[in-house]
From TrEMBL, chain A:
Transmembrane spans: none
GO cellular component: mitochondrial large ribosomal subunit
Region annotated Disordered, chain positions: 260-283
An annotated Gene Ontology molecular function: structural constituent of ribosome
InterPro entries reported for this sequence: Ribosomal_bL28 (IPR026569)
Protein name as annotated: 39S ribosomal protein L28, mitochondrial
Organism encoding this protein: Acanthoscelides obtectus
TrEMBL record, chain B:
GO molecular function terms noted in the UniProt entry: structural constituent of ribosome
Pfam families: Ribosomal_L9_N (PF01281)
Biological processes, Gene Ontology terms: translation
Taxonomic source organism: Acanthoscelides obtectus (Bean weevil)
A cellular component term, taken from the record's GO annotations: ribonucleoprotein complex
Chain ranges of the Ribosomal protein L9 domain: 71-116
Keywords in alphabetical order: Ribonucleoprotein, Ribosomal protein
Source species taxonomy: Eukaryota, Metazoa, Ecdysozoa, Arthropoda, Hexapoda
Protein name (database record): Large ribosomal subunit protein bL9m
UniProt keyword annotation of ATP-binding present: no
Amino acid sequence: MASKSVKALGLARKSLTALETGLATRLPEAYKKFYKEWKLTEPTAVHYIPETGKWKRNDITGEVFPVQNVPLPVIYPPEANNHIWGGDGVIQGFQSRASDVRRVPHFWVPVLKRTVVYSEVLDKYLSVIVTERAISLINSNYGFDHYLLKTPACDLKGLLPLRLKRKILQELQKGCPSYADKPEKQSEVLHRFENYLSAYTAEEIEWYGYSLHEALRILKQRIEEEERSKVVPLKHMYRAQLIEKLKAASLSEMVDNKAEEISSGESGSWLQKINPFGKKRET
Amino acid sequence: MWKSLFTAVSKAPVLQTTDILNQQLRTTFILRRKTPPLLHKQGRKPKTLRSRHYIYELVKDTDVEKQADIDVILTSYVEGLGNAGDKVSVRPTFAYNKLLLPGLAVYASPENVEKYSNLTNDSEKIRYSSKNAFYTVQTLSQMLLSVVMNKENPWTLKPWHIRVCFRKCGYIVPEDAITLPEKQISGPNMELEDKEFFVTVTINNQEKVNVRCRIHHWSTNITERIPHVHNFWEILSEPVIPEQAPILESMPKKRNVIKKRQASI
């Protein structure tokens, strides 16, 4: 009998991705779609020039080799989530400065600057920290809104631009309430950016641009709320029952009283019932 | 054979490489591995990178490279650039900080080009004959022109006198652009000394600006000359022609006088 590897039989233990474990499995499809666009799509090559074509020939030997672009590992520090880096990142590596000198560790860090970006949909000027690349991308896309809406999540990278994108999409969904006093401008802006909305459903926009941690927190909250609304404490039930009983009792009592009054002809006050000269009680 | 196969493969929609280079490649650093990693099996994970694969060489640092100019459409007149509706090519940083963010211009995207094409014919916006016209008007309206005339020989003020006086200050003004006051001014007359009048200069047959002038008598004979007055422009004077008095009142004073006054306040 030919032996087969465990892997070939499909029995090997597959390592689970972040979306396949724990609470994350209960996340809606809308969020999973965003997560795949953000984390599992290959971003644009920023720090290296990828080779084009499928094959290349060695000029001297004439051998043909496949073209395999192995991207440079890039670090995105936590600060990048509060800035707009436009796909830039930090590269950790070595420099070989001379042939007879040992390689030297080096970090290639983008230059950051604080500037202002203007979002036409939100009608707001935002002071943010950006890289030069982000500004040039805004310029080449003819504006900040176009840049955010055109660029996929894998190239926006940071949470701030993703959050802004969600905000802009939500604003467009509502029909640009920031221009409520200028209906002409409002319709013009809507007309210009409407076509971006067709790529998303309402649920996708709702779940767009959250980190996995944030999304799980939201999901947890919703689950808890749902459970809370389902389970009613027994004391609430009993209280309601008691109130109803009391109401029914008081009603019947009133009916009895009225009937008595009619039969006796006068209202029986408690003063009349008291006899001051009656038998004394033993003390 | 390979060539034909390659073309067939590259035309297949699934196998087409993404148009990565279509996007502008502008970033801080573009690097290259000194030792490229070995080829891996197709459909498998790339091989584990070793230390030698982390030795990088700098291909280019695009932050220090000169960026290309960008096109913008002006939405209002910008001093030294152009009128509303003009498409101008400027440095990207200047365009972003000084034109696009303040709202003086918009990006020259195809839809904007179409939208703002009728702005050049818009009569509501103020239009200047050239990009520097507004600046010239401002400069001329704030100057004090010394009209230096002869103290001995009789003269009547002509446009060429004014032209020469302008030239002495560094302004080349054609004679036909100068309009003198209707009332003739003639001398030598020591009553006119240090008195003011204004001439009108027409720029490009469009913008008109009044220029404050002051008569000063000059003699070739040194002993005959009027003694020098320090900062004579700070001393107020009377009009040559009484009818011009209200306009001279309303005209701005010489530039450094204005500055000095602001400083003292």
